[in-house]
């Protein structure tokens, strides 16, 4: 897609888009109630919504990216609030700013490799936080196996972004899957 091409917003009128948007908002709010399961459900919903919207109702990839990158912020704001309640506002704000830069650069250039350059470390570090420190208590830099898991999460996210944005399955695969 070229930078100056307009993305049609007519897809926003589709009832499935509304239903998925409301579901994503409610799942994001669940992070306040149960941060671990809330973020897991948020990640699952982020995967599922692409299948439903791109391959179920057939919106275009540029439309999906425009919608998804905005809807992701529902969860990001809640996750930042929870991280702040742990006393970790600044490091999570910086990770979220990194994510914002990637999304901004993508929206400006429409180049998917921007997500490889600016991966979503924010959400992976938040997931790591709520797994290893479910009730807070992170008072110093982690060491040992907990640090190892943080590194594994970060490297795993980098690999995920690389595969997702540079080697996504082609449209024919999903047409066979959904028989369209």
Report on the architecture of this protein.
This protein has 180 residues and is mainly alpha-helical. The radius of gyration is 17 Å and the shape is globular. The protein has helices at 15-33, 35-56, 61-85, 89-109, 113-117, 121-132, 144-166, 171-178. The chain has 8 helices and no strands. α6 (121-132) runs antiparallel to α7.
Keywords summarizing the entry:
180 residues, mainly alpha, globular
Topology summary:
Elements (H helix, E strand, L loop, with lengths): L14 H19 L1 H22 L4 H25 L3 H21 L3 H5 L3 H12 L11 H23 L4 H8 L2
Helix pairs in contact: 1-2, 1-3, 2-3, 2-6, 3-4, 3-6, 4-6, 6-7
In short:
75% of the residues lie in helices and 0% in strands. It has helices at residues 15-33, 35-56, 61-85, 89-109, 113-117, 121-132, 144-166, 171-178.
- Please mark out the parts with pLDDT under 50 across 5 or more consecutive residues, or reply none: none
Strands, count: 0
Largest sheet: none
Average pLDDT number: 85
Helix content: over 70%
How large is the count of helical segments?
Answer: 8
Q: Which geometry do the CA atoms define?
A: globular
* Secondary structural class: mainly alpha
| N-to-C CA distance | 24 Å
**Elements, N to C (H/E):** HHHHHHHH
Strand content: under 5%
Report the C-alpha radius of gyration, rounded: 17 Å
